[in-house]
Amino acid sequence: MNNEQRLKELERRRTRAARLLAAGVKQAEVARRVGVSRQAVQRWERVRQRRGVAGLKSPPRFGRPPKLSEAQRKELVTALKQGALAAGFATELWTLPRIGRLIKDRFGVSLAQSSVWRVLGELGWSVQRPAGQARQRDEQAIRTWKTKRWPALKKFAARQGRVIVFIDESGLSERPCRARTWAPRGHTPILQYSFSWKQLSVIAGISFWRFYFRLFPGTIRTPQVIEFLKVLQATIGKKLLIIWDRLQAHRSKLVRQHVEDQRGAIALEFLPAYAPELNPTECVWGYLKHHAMPNYCAADLADLSRHARSRLRSMQRRPTLVRAFWQQAELF
Known about the structure:
By secondary structure, the chain is an alpha/beta fold. Helices cover 48% and strands 11% of the residues.
């Protein structure tokens, strides 16, 4: 909402309050309905008594008129949404100088970078880090799974008394996940860690009320997946509906044979390809690496394993986190 829209909204509030006051509604009730303080209503009532409803209208705007009209601002938003490549730049990156050049070329208006920043803020834009997506994604298949297949799976699980568990894997290394931190200006913080290619792997499954995990050295393969499925069955004690991606270990013959040996105790469902955002377990990894363990420099893999296990157990004790993971995946 820009300044002009805010002024109009405030004027609408004052006008509504004036109508309620004229109808005999008490000031406290007017404040509650309009969503302002009683002091504001008292001030508006004094103005209304002296100058009428017209006195509550927004005064005409003074000062230098904006260099970009509303129509030009709308055109600018359209051009920005089309991307930097469409505007003739070499990469899909909007910077203040590039946007200033776009404004100059399109509208013949020269703006300082600080003015460009202010205009972008008024338009509701902010600096953001882009998320990556694979070109091979089938958007129609993803929408169909989310709107049709997922509701059908929930009904299927409820009908058969199954617990839905989304499963995913991730890796941790002695190299920390770096995050911004405070430091003296001009002095970049240094993280000293062991530059090793050794890896610790984590597999986790998340249900509607909690998540489960196991840590393994090295890469997770079929034997580790089967071991985790056995642990899930023993811990939950009910029939399971496992939903996961199309990782080779998930589709291996040994996994299929293990599922068949359970005689219906485990049902499998595969997510659409290149759609990690549908799996709430991905949010577990994001929180673990960027909120629970950022900038942690492990002494060795054993230290990394102890710290990761401690952080994951702490996350398990927070049911609000589990709900947030589901909400982030827009499946809750």
